[in-house]
């Protein structure tokens, strides 16, 4: 049996190398994990938690990240009854969000006085001087903008009094004409 030990010692580094190579190749082949399935990370200057009501209030330079989705605000209220995250409300002048669209391979940015992120339905509602931009493509403004993260659909509304109507600006694609 002692004759087998040197033989095993010789193959051990080769086995480890093959194992590591196979692991790195399979991890590169794994599909992209959607933002809504990734953990949520929060930083702020101050936190107050009310366990009985399931409400946490973060104040001062609040930053929330979930995958490529980033939400910032002056004050953020998180509603989490029974320990289950339901709603995130970001208040700011303005509160802002950004998310990388895997479909279009570009960033989507938004801002409003209030941004509500519903984790159950994976939706974002921007209220008060709302604006959503896809740099180099378009800008949408209105009183309220509703964005469905999973479906990547958007609806905008103007104010009821008609003063803050929906506005859309499209940037044309660059022309290939060189005449």
Automatic annotation (TrEMBL):
The keyword Signal applies. Keywords: Periplasm, Signal, Transport. Residues 41-152 form the Organic solvent tolerance-like N-terminal domain. Pfam families: LptD_N. Residues 158-179 are annotated as: Disordered. One of its GO terms (biological process) is lipopolysaccharide transport. GO terms for cellular component: cell outer membrane; outer membrane-bounded periplasmic space. This is Organic solvent tolerance-like N-terminal domain-containing protein. It comes from hydrothermal vent metagenome.
